[in-house]
Amino acid sequence: xxTETFEAIRFTADVxxxxxxxxxxxxxxxWDPHAGQWALPGGHVDPGETSRAAAARExxxxxxxxxxxxxxxxxxxxxxxxxxxxxxxxxxxxQLAVISGTPVQAGxxxxxxxWWPLADLPPLAFDHADIxxxxxxxTT
Length: 140
Known about the structure:
Blueprint: E1 9-19, E2 23-29, E3 38-39, E4 42-44, H1 51-63, E5 73-78, E6 88-98, E7 110-117, H2 128-138
Parallel strand pairs: 1-6
Antiparallel strand pairs: 1-4, 2-3, 2-7, 5-6
């Protein structure tokens, strides 16, 4: 008899948007987990959607920044158990470079959005500091 248990795994996508003047785009989360903390724009991949398409969609919904899925460069996959307090989440992270001064507007579950200097980031939700470090190392 098979007594294996299966872990529910949720699939998400995040985007590291960097500007030509050395800033990164962050959203302030509107609800738990980590309500009030800064994080990368991102969210769940919808049924029938690729992670790249989800990343582009979430970027518009949360920060008002438009990009085609093809403009997003894959940085990597983050799948460590415990990276999200809600359960097992696997995210694929993408990077997008934009010109400084690109306008942003909070929407969806973001209560605020702003550009932060990469050298002076606030404490970040989840493992987003690791994702930013990987994305910026890949572009330097």
